[in-house]
Design brief:
Rossmann fold, globular, 6-stranded mixed sheet, binds adenosine-5'-triphosphate, 4-stranded antiparallel sheet, 229 residues, single chain, alpha/beta, binds magnesium ion
Amino acid sequence: MPNPIIQVQGVHKEYGRGKKTVAALKDINLEVQPGQFLAILGPSGCGKSTLLHVMAGLEQPTDGRILLDGVDVTLISERDLPKVRAQKIGFVFQSFLLIEDLTAYENIEAVLWPNPEITKNKQEDMTLDVLREVDMLERRDHFPRQLSGGEQQRVAIARALVNNPPILFCDEPTGNLDSKTGDAVMKIISKLNKDKGMTVVLVTHNEELARYAKRTLRMKDGIITSDRG
Ligand SMILES: Nc1ncnc2c1ncn2[C@@H]1O[C@H](COP(=O)(O)OP(=O)(O)OP(=O)(O)O)[C@@H](O)[C@H]1O
Ligand SMILES: [Mg+2]
C-alpha cells in the first residue's frame, strides 16, 4: 500500500477558553490514501468543517499532528504555510468565495503561487487549461455577479486546481446550488478523482452526494463514529 497522503494523528480542536470552551474535535485519527474519494457526513455542528480546515492547514489544531504528503503542516511557519498549501491542496467552499471585482480568469490567475520559473505565458496557459477543464473558457471575462451559482462554483473549482495540487478539499460544495446544478458540480469533482487521480475529501450532510465517494466517514460531537468503504 502506498504511503497515506493525509495523516491525522490525535487531533483535538478547542474553541474559546475556560467555561466557554467548545471541543469541536476530540482525538481524531485518520489516514487517507492517494487517489481516494472520502465523504465526511454528520449533523450540523459535529465538527466537519473544523476537521476539513485543520486538515487543509487553514486552522491549527489545539493538539495533534496533520501530515500532508508526509509534511507536518502543524510545524510549518506562518510565513511558509501559504506556499505549502498552494502546492498540496485546493479548497472549495460552499459560498464560492470569489473576489467580486476580478473576472473569472483573474480570480484564478491571482492564486498562482508566485514562482519566477513560471513565465507569464505559462501562467496564462495554466489558467486557460483549468477554465477549459470546468467548461468555463467562454465565460472567462465575466465577473462573479454575471455568473450563475453553478458557474461561480466551477470557477472556484478551477481556482482550486490551478496549482495542480494532489488533494482537493470540498466543504458542502453544492450547498448553495439547486440539485441539478449541484449534480453537475459533483460530476466535475468526481471526474477529477477518476481521471486525474486527485485525492478528494468532501464534507456534506447529503447522503445522496456521499454516494459519489468510495469511503464514508460519519461524525458526531467531534468524534468519528463510523468509517466505511
Ligand atoms: N470559530 C469558532 N469559534 C467558536 N466555536 C466554533 C468556531 N467554529 C466552529 N465552532 C464550533 O465548533 C463546533 C463544530 O463546528 P463546525 O463548523 O466544524 O460544524 P459542521 O459539522 O461543519 O456544521 P455544519 O454542517 O452546520 O456546517 C460547533 O459547535 C461550532 O459552534
Ligand atoms: Mg460546516
